[in-house]
């Protein structure tokens, strides 16, 4: 019984609540939580998947078939009913997750956990998350009433489910935290999309780069952070002809870098957020049909980020992964096309230094004083009075850092310019993709997508494959946005945007495949400035080398590639380190470890020890190399992995190789290899003594944690899966392929899919985490793409949603 595990770990849970809230009085009442009538025990039930349910506002009946994977196949007679049903069904299985994500996005966690969450909430408010959602709502109200009505339908569906619940039926997390669900609104959907935009916004290191520039100088900075690496295998093939572009890049102004910044910055997106996608043409497919694959790399969470559904009306029939809170299928297929996304990590956030007048009512711009817009954010705190935070807004955006938040400068602040603050209609992209029938429909759907920048892969039953790097991108002058800029100089503003038709893209390339893995989008020939935002340099080369290795590819090849554990990063450095490291001083224990990694084939398989040795060795080496950038009271970032390895192999006597603390010696890269190896060997011995071995499966310890990290009983630990960051199977400790999908463009398409979780958000359900073991083993499920609402052998239950006034 899963809840028995909860009781075992409940002491830990209480302790964590104590740390979060500091006052034992803020812990929810345990008696209420454990009540046998209305408490946690009421949640250990299987989902009801049969019978009729009345839903207010439906126009017609909606049929919902559940298959053996607990995937709902929703058949509605019109789009309004479809999205109302999607909201209802999503809330039925994922209500707490649905709402908690928007609490996080809105900076409302203090309402649940007390004062210890205040800094997080202030960060989100100052980041402009609520402001951005409000801009989306204003845009929809002004320009797209139809999409807004669909979002309202979804909201009505969520609320229809909430209204049917009794308190004893609330998901267990509500009982544990002692609060209740609130009504869903269209603004919450906008907040959910802002949450995803923040998660995939790129690294946003402008302020850190400014500090690094001041610390090491321009020449060294350009060595450490080049715009292009010496090896560039971009998303869009190098041979692409850009002659059709007739709008020029913004010319370089005479503005200067502002060489000041702050000590501490707000939380950034997780560096492991990324993805793979690819497609091969029919000519490169064993069956003659195009094949498409997608695997977004996101946090391994329970409940899962994704909820798989089929959404059908008489006019369209879509299947795939949805995100609780958003309409339509996000990564999936319909009768005619398939699509999927990877993070393009384009630089869509810039920072500006703002100079205020004495009372901070105005700010300097273009040799004049402009009025500041004042926004007071009221943050409710559990068990205490609300906290009111005054956030100043300029035409650039919110002043995130000022004298009241992470800065001591009395007369200046740092404002964020983020494309996500511009009103847009991202939701329409997926509504239109779900209905698209061909390449032109796909391109039309993408025009509505502003942020986050995404690589949208495409394949169709007509035989086309394509990939667009889509987002609303500022047409920047060369270098713009790399460092903190003077907010008073109009030349530093975004002057214009790249026309959407000139966004980098490719259709049916001669090589017969398209792919993206968060690498550089283009090479130097693309006419617009593209900032190197720490692009991936390993997964993409493994993928492209694979598709250049033979002529024809099968679905099995796609499975094998999804689960490929080859560590190209290690393969490009370990042999060099082994060859150039002085080994005469190694102890007998160290020689054993040396021989172990010498014998490694560079696959991060679960039973190998090589990956563990590599992780320790490279980690120690990296920290030794970049000790110059380990400075207190200064926000800094370290160079990209690829450039680090380039320097170790090609600039072994550079001043950066010298260890700062050793005043009597100047180290080279060869010295660092040995010193780091000895430190790694020492740590590996400790692990072996404690754990018994340091095989990769034990060393890495992949887990899928509950969204409330204080609930180990609702999490899964020690998942036996290989891979790692920078590997195609990009599974690290708590990040990895959050949804693996393979679609062959037969008519209709046939598809496979799996994700590390389960369809239910109820930890007491057999469907909560039942996919994880198969996912870890590299297995897939056949997706039952129903062509009508008739019951098949795969269906285990059917519900009918009926209008309230149905007779």
Automatic annotation (TrEMBL):
Q: Please, which domain of life does this record's source organism belong to?
A: Bacteria
Alphabetized, the UniProt keywords read: Hydrolase, Zymogen
SUPFAM superfamilies noted in UniProt: N-terminal nucleophile aminohydrolases (Ntn hydrolases) (SSF56235)
Instruction: Fetch the InterPro entries from UniProt.
Output: Ntn_hydrolases_N (IPR029055), Pen/GL7ACA/AHL_acylase (IPR014395), Penicillin_amidase_A-knob (IPR043147), Penicillin_amidase_dom1 (IPR023343), Penicillin_amidase_N_B-knob (IPR043146), S45 (IPR002692)
Q: Which family does it belong to?
A: Belongs to the peptidase S45 family.
Q: Which PANTHER family match?
A: ACYL-HOMOSERINE LACTONE ACYLASE QUIP (PTHR34218:SF4), PEPTIDASE S45 PENICILLIN AMIDASE (PTHR34218)
Q: What is this protein called in UniProt?
A: Penicillin acylase family protein
């Amino acid at each position: 019984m899963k809840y028995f595990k909860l009781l075992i770990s409940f002491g830990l849970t209480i302790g964590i609540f104590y740390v979060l809230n500091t006052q034992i009085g803020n812990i929810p009442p345990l008696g209420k939580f454990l009540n046998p009538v209305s408490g946690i025990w009421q949640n250990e039930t299987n989902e009801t998947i049969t019978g009729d349910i009345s839903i207010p506002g439906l126009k017609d009946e909606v049929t919902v078939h559940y298959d053996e994977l607990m995937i709902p196949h929703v058949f509605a007679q019109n789009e309004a009913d479809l999205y109302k049903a999607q909201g209802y069904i999503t809330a039925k299985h994922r209500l707490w997750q649905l709402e908690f994500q928007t609490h996080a996005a809105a900076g409302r966690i203090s309402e649940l956990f007390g004062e210890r969450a205040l800094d997080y909430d202030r960060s989100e408010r100052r980041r402009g998350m609520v402001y951005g959602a409000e801009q989306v709502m204003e845009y929809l109200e002004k320009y797209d009433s139809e999409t807004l009505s669909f979002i309202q339908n979804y909201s009505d569906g969520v609320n229809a489910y909430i209204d049917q619940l009794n308190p004893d039926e609330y998901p267990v997390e509500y009982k544990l935290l002692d609060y209740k669900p609130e009504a869903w609104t269209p603004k919450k959907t906008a907040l959910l999309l802002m949450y995803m935009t923040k998660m995939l916004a790129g690294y946003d290191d402008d302020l850190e780069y400014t500090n690094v520039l001041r610390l090491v100088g321009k020449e060294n900075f350009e060595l450490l952070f080049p715009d292009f690496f010496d090896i560039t295998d971009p998303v869009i093939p190098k041979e692409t002809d850009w002659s059709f572009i007739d709008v020029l890049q913004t010319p370089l102004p005479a503005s200067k870098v502002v060489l000041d910044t702050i000590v501490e910055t707000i939380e950034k997106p997780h560096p492991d957020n990324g993805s793979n996608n690819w497609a091969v043409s029919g000519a490169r497919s064993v069956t003659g049909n195009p094949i498409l694959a997608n695997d977004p790399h996101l946090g391994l969470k329970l409940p899962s980020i994704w909820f798989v559904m089929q959404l059908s009306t008489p006019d369209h029939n879509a299947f795939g992964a949805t995100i609780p809170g958003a309409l339509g299928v996000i990564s999936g297929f319909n009768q005619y096309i398939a699509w999927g996304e990877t993070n393009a990590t384009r630089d869509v956030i810039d920072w500006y230094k703002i100079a205020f007048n004495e009372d901070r009512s105005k700010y300097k711009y273009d040799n004049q004083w402009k009025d500041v817009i004042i926004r007071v954010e009221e943050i409710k705190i559990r068990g205490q009075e609300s906290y009111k935070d005054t956030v100043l807004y300029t035409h650039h955006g919110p002043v995130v850092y000022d004298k009241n938040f992470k800065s001591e400068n009395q007369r200046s602040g740092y404002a964020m310019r983020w494309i996500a603050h511009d009103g847009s209609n991202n939701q329409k992209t997926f509504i239109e993709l779900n209905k698209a029938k061909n390449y032109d429909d796909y391109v039309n759907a993408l025009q509505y997508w502003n942020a986050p920048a995404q690589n949208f892969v495409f394949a169709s039953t007509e035989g086309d494959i394509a990939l667009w790097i889509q987002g609303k991108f500022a047409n920047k002058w060369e270098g713009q946005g790399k460092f903190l800029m003077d907010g008073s100089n109009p030349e530093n503003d975004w002057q214009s945007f790249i026309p959407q038709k000139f966004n980098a893209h490719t259709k049916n390339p001669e090589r017969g495949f398209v792919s993206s893995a968060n690498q550089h989008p283009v090479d130097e020939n693309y006419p617009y400035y593209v900032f190197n935002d720490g692009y991936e340099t390993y997964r993409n080369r493994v993928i492209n080398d694979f598709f250049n290795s033979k002529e024809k590819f099968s679905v099995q090849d796609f499975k094998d590639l999804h689960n490929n554990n080859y560590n190209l990063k290690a393969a490009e450095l370990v042999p060099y380190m082994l060859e150039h490291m002085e080994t005469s001083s190694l102890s007998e224990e160290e020689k054993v470890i040396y021989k172990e990694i010498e014998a490694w084939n560079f696959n991060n398989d679960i039973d190998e020890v090589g990956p563990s040795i590599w992780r320790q060795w490279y980690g120690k080496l990296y920290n030794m190399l970049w000790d110059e950038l380990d400075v207190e009271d200064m926000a800094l970032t370290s160079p990209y992995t690829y450039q680090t390895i380039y320097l170790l192999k090609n600039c072994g006597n550079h001043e950066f190789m010298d260890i700062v603390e050793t005043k009597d010696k100047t180290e080279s890269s060869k010295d660092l290899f040995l010193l780091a190896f000895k430190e790694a060997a020492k740590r590996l011995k400790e692990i072996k003594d404690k754990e018994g071995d340091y095989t990769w499966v034990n060393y890495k310890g992949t887990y899928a944690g509950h969204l409330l990290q204080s609930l180990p009983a609702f999490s899964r630990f020690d998942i036996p899966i290989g891979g790692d960051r920078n590997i195609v199977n990009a599974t690290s400790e708590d990040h990895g392929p959050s949804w693996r999908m393979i679609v062959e463009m037969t008519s209709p398409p046939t598809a496979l899919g799996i994700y590390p979780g389960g369809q239910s958000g109820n930890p007491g359900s057999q469907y909560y985490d039942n996919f994880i073991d198969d996912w870890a083993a590299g297995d897939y499920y056949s997706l039952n793409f129903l062509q009508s609402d008739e019951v098949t052998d795969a269906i285990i239950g059917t519900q009918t949603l009926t209008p309230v006034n149905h007779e």
